[in-house]
Amino acid sequence: MKATLSISNQTYTVDFSQPVDISIPLTNTDENPIAWYLDKPSIEPVRMGDWVGKVSEGQSSTNFNTIAFNPHGHGTHTECLGHITREFYSINDTLKTFVFLAQLLTITPEQQEDGDAVITLTQIQRQWNEQGQTAVVLRTLPNQENKKHSKYSHTNPPYLAADAATFLREKGIKHLLIDLPSVDKEKDEGKLAAHKAFWNVKDVNQVNNDAQFDATITELIYVADEVADGMYILNIQIASFVNDASPSKPILYQIF
């Protein structure tokens, strides 16, 4: 089903019948990705005495599960600057529009002398295509499907250089998506340089007025190889959590 869509005074034709889901499903199995030293999520039926909220066990007319998970460590999630500030900010209040023009870039993080692998400013500048986009999706290589099941704790995954995050902010990017557990180094002594650079947060205890209050970072996505680099319409779907982050379902649509 093709339709026209207007974003920032530009009109695009998209086919809403061909969504490209770049989220990772959350499960209570060992297939679930895990970061930040957590155990896997829990999805279990409610138990009250001998009663179990599970139709297959014959005692309930409905499946009635309780889910325990951490949005940052258990799958695709979208976060706001409240993730790093002393003052509370909610993703439910931060993200008020949900459809954006996005550029998908594929980058092989560069090996540094200290052993880190980093997405650099030069790499992003080399592929940048100025089209008025307000979102960017970063796919890293190698891009094996096991990213959807990886156990990232204590592995020092690649991350985004702070000056690259600044470049994206200065280019008008409001929504940064990446297929890694964080835009920052796993163990960085709490510096969070890329988070701070992208949100323009200089002091987490006293947020400056020119911080990007309406900007989001989405981590732990997965973009399959067959999805070509270029411009897309991006739809970010979140649950209405009053929290710094929510599990999310970003969807790409091809532009015709």
Which helices and strands occur, and which strands form pairs?
Elements: E1 2-7, E2 10-15, E3 20-21, E4 42-45, E5 47-48, E6 51-52, E7 65-68, E8 77-79, H1 91-94, E9 99-107, E10 110-111, E11 117-119, H2 121-127, E12 135-140, E13 159-160, H3 162-170, E14 175-178, H4 193-199, E15 216-219, E16 230-238, E17 245-254
Parallel strand pairs: 9-12, 11-13, 12-14, 14-15
Antiparallel strand pairs: 1-2, 3-17, 4-7, 5-6, 8-15, 8-17, 9-16, 10-11, 16-17
Helix pairs in contact: 2-3, 3-4
EC number: 3.5.1.9
Enzyme class: hydrolase
Protein name: Kynurenine formamidase
Describe the fold and architecture:
GO terms for molecular function: arylformamidase activity. Its EC number is 3.5.1.9. Keywords: Hydrolase. It comes from Myroides odoratus. InterPro entries: KFase/CYL (IPR007325), KFase_sf (IPR037175). There is one protein chain. The protein has one domain: Glucose Oxidase, domain 1. The chain is globular and about 60 Å long. The longest helix is centred in the middle third of the chain and has 9 residues, at 162-170. The mean pLDDT is 97. It has a seven-stranded mixed barrel. A three-stranded mixed beta sheet has the order 10-11-13. A two-stranded antiparallel sheet has the order 1-2. With 256 residues, the protein is mainly β. The protein has four helices and 17 strands. Helix 2 (121-127) packs parallel to helix 3.
